[in-house]
Design brief:
It is built from 14 helices and 16 strands. It is an alpha/beta fold. The protein folds into 2 domains: 157 residues, no CATH class; 207 residues, Rossmann fold (3-Layer(aba) Sandwich). A hairpin with a 3-residue loop joins strand 1 and strand 2. The protein is globular.
Length: 378
């Protein structure tokens, strides 16, 4: 069995090499000391024949270890079934994964307390918000605010970057909407709802707007370090062979630049001013490669670049419901909610809505808050 110290790792690339932009891992005692009040941190380790689950509470709390027996291949098959939302077996799969991954430790978490998940391997693909307690007939998001982190070290470091001069969502931001695409290099559909969403958000907040041809890579790189928050509404393209080459697609430049901003390049940015990055694009939060020992993503790259909180997606999302969800999210931010509570309220609004398609987890459960989740973290 791995020792506790082996679980508190920093971020690893798909080749198992520690990314130079990320911090060295902290010891367990230091992690426990730095977990905020009213936060439970749950870290998973997927082994060949079982899952180890560490449940940690700060402020003098301790780490508790739970073990669940399941073959790694069977776990990956269950997660694959969960991604088929129209399957008749979806409900049973969501309840089964709840029983496996959540039920063993949930009684130790106070009602309504914030839970921060640190997934491992294929669990990066699980929409924990949509796991369902079959006894209470409720989704996990209905009982607890949820956040996510690539590692315990990145999480506590992000929390500590949050406090200080409090910047609200009324502060200047940067809004990027449907960048013009070099169709000779990218075959991607138009996103009219994304463009409309960006225009509304920029108008409501008085923020600079990069739209269409103006949303070039050079313009983004010039403005991003000065922005208190960033909202990107457009396309992302995942490279499953080398996730550091996954890109946000921006407008091409006059010098022949394709507009592709890679995860590797994002790692090199300096976003110490930026408190929040919203990536309204497909698969920006999950780029787990089956058979690998780690995961990287566009969201993780922004965290390593200095942004303490990123909102990103687990799967390919539809334009219209994404715009509706994030409109509600931004309204709640404007009213003073922190990103975790704002996203939860927006998701619950869709879950309780009149439109059957919007009530499906496919529509509302793709987006997650990754990074700092303390109430004072934004």
């Amino acid at each position: 069995m791995p020792s506790a110290s082996t679980l508190w790792t920093g971020g690893f690339s798909e080749r198992g090499q520690l990314l130079a932009a990320e911090p060295q891992p902290l010891p367990l005692a230091e992690i426990l000391r730095r977990i905020p009040d009213q936060v439970t941190l749950v870290q998973f380790s997927v082994l060949e024949d079982r899952v180890l689950i560490w449940c940690l509470r700060g402020n003098g709390g301790r780490a508790r270890l739970f073990q669940r027996s399941i073959r790694r291949d069977d776990l990956e098959a269950a997660v694959a079934r969960l991604q088929k939302f129209d399957s008749p077996a979806w409900g049973d799969t969501a309840a089964g994964l709840f029983d496996l991954l959540v039920r063993p430790w949930l009684d130790s978490v106070p009602p309504g307390e914030r839970i921060v998940f640190i997934p491992d391997k294929v669990l990066h693909r699980v929409p924990f918000a949509a796991l369902k307690d079959r006894s209470a007939v409720r989704f996990l998001i209905e009982n607890h605010p949820l956040a996510f982190a690539p590692s315990a070290t990145l999480y506590v470091n992000a929390v500590e970057r949050g406090p200080g001069v409090r910047r609200t969502f009324h502060s200047p931001g940067l809004v990027v909407g449907e960048p013009a695409i070099d169709y000779s290099r990218f075959v991607l559909p138009s996103l009219p709802d994304a463009a409309a969403e960006a225009r509304r958000l920029a108008a409501q907040t008085g923020s600079p707007l990069l739209l269409g041809k103006d949303a070039s890579k050079a313009a983004f790189l010039a403005r991003a370090p000065e922005a208190d928050w960033i909202h990107f509404s457009g396309h992302a393209v995942v490279d499953p062979q080398n996730t550091l080459l996954s890109v946000l697609v921006l407008a091409p430049g006059p010098d022949g630049d394709s507009g592709a901003l890679t995860a590797r390049e994002i790692y090199g940015l300096h976003l110490g001013r930026t408190r929040l990055v919203v990536l309204a694009a497909c698969e920006t939060g999950n780029q787990y490669v089956p058979g690998s020992e780690g995961v990287t993503s566009l969201a993780r790259a922004f965290l390593a670049a200095g942004a303490p909180t990123v909102v990103a997606s687990l799967w390919s999302v539809d334009d219209r419901p994404t715009a509706d969800l994030l409109d509600a999210f931004h309204r709640r931010l404007w009213d003073g909610a922190d990103p975790v509570d704002a996203l939860r309220e927006a998701e619950l609004g869709m879950l309780q809505g009149k439109d059957a398609a919007d009530r499906s987890p496919r529509a509302w459960a793709a987006f997650e808050v990754i990074g700092a989740s303390a109430k004072n973290g934004f």
